[in-house]
Amino acid sequence: MILVLAEQRSGKLNRVTWETIAAAQELCRVRSVAPAITIAVIGSNVDAVASEIAAARAQKVVVIDHHALEPYTPDGYVAALEQVIARLSPSHVLLPHTYQTRDFAPALAARLDRALVTDVTGMKAVGGEIAFVRPMFQGKLTADVVAQGAAPHLVTFQIGALRADQAARGEAPAPIEAFAFEIDRSVIREKPEAPFQEAKQSVDLSQAERIVAVGRGIKGQEHLPVVQKLAAALDAELAASRPICDAGWLPMERQVGSSGRTVAPKLYVALGISGAIQHLVGMKGSRTIVAINKDADAPIFEVADYGIAGDLFEIVPAIVAELGK
Questions:
Q1: What is the reported pTM?
Q2: How far is CA 256 from CA 120, 152, 211, 217, 239, in A?
């Protein structure tokens, strides 16, 4: 059985959980075993989240609900999940590779004395074992990693490695079960402050369905309104490659790439972006990629579904005009 840990905050499901469910279903296929997936929802007052995720094709949804789990602390999560994993005895524990997971997963793996493979983008069968594919050296290389030691193996999946819509839904909602457990509050050493809130104009690009991203082809900050008009016309979020953010033309939270955000929108429009590997790592999971670049040999065209070799200052206004019609 594979255990998927759903991620939620304040009763709202993080949609990357669906990508992790798709990964669990794919892992069953690669292992050539019948799908046997349990989804765990952890937190306090998470019944609504459990009902939402029960639409997935899974054996059951386990609700790990306790007042000590709100607000989130790594100590609380580790204490609860240690009990859950011991009782369910899964072969693998799959998690989305988010900031929260990166906070508690290493501590959980250490507590269980089990292997942890992070930032996985794929998986394959190798010599009767499962090898997890993960990037190295900012995406310049990939490694096939086979987890050693006793089960369960903990695996985190990079955002965009699989698409949320690839997760199979069940014909009927999966049964929901409450998990009975206790937490000694003395084990929770942290006193968390209020969650960090970015400025109002900021956005979590990992949740965006449409993104318009701009690179050095924009030439100067004064030309940003050209791409902002396209983003507005598409009801999309504006993003950028690293040079744009390093120059201060857009805030750092808008950066996509190995040193920025990893995104997987339904539509990704790359304007004047050459397609360096560091940028591709952050957006290659997008469902549809449209690239506009003057250089017909730019690497971005190798991953684009649709490409236009031309001047973005001519093409983008024409697109905006057509959208306006």
A1: 0.77
A2: 18, 33, 10, 16, 7
Q: Which two tokens stand for residue 303?
A: 């991953």
Q: Which residues are within 8 A (CB) of 99 and not within 5 positions of it... i.e. 6 or more apart?
A: none
Contact by Cβ (8 Å): 100, 18: no
Contact 56, 18 (CB under 8 A): yes
Q: Is 101 helix (H, G, I), strand (E, B) or coil?
A: helix
Measured at the CA of 81, the angle between CA 49 and CA 132, to 5 degrees, comes to: 90
* pLDDT tens-digit series, residues 237-294: 999 999 999 999 999 889 998 878 888 899 999 999 999 888 988 898 898 999 999 9
Task: Give the type of residue at 80.
Answer: A
Q: Which residues of 80-95 are buried (b: 16+ CB within 10 A; e: fewer)?
A: bbeebbeeeebebbbb
Find where tokens 């968390």 sit: 192
β-pair type (237-240, 210-214): parallel
